[in-house]
Amino acid sequence: MRQISSTPPPVYLVDDDQALRTALKFSLELEGFDVRTYASGEDLLRARLPRRGGCLVLDQNLPGLTGLEALSVLRSRAISLPALLITSHLTAALQDTAKQAKATVVEKPLLGDVLVGCIWRALDEAKPA
Q: Is residue 31 assigned to a domain?
């Protein structure tokens, strides 16, 4: 576990699979994150998100808006939180679109501490110089 400040960084987790959402929330909270969960892209878009501070973790294959579609709306609102897109169906086109949206793609299955490492990297890269 990485040592963090007294205020844990928020992680905004979007996944329609309740069991996975619950498991990831538990795992990320053990790592010291303040995890807020959403069942859909639409739920995330209704939330009051900061422009900075924290990390988005979005499943790509959501009912309704996809993870990238929800991220596109957030970017149009000037929300520049670092974003991770989780998917089990990575294509070159998806990789290119994610890159344009400034999102890092993390492929499923989420083995070991890959997701945690990606979140910390995204948070570190988003820190002001």
A: yes
Total count of domains within the chain: 1
Residue-level pLDDT at 2: 52
CATH number at residue 22: 3.40.50.2300
* Backbone φ and ψ of 85, nearest 5°: -110, 120
Tell me the pTM. 0.91
* Mean pLDDT of the region 14-23: 96
Of 67, 57, 61, nearest to 34 by C-alpha is: 57
- E-assigned strand segments in the chain: 10-14, 34-38, 55-59, 83-87, 103-107
Provide the residue range defining the domain that includes 116.
10-124
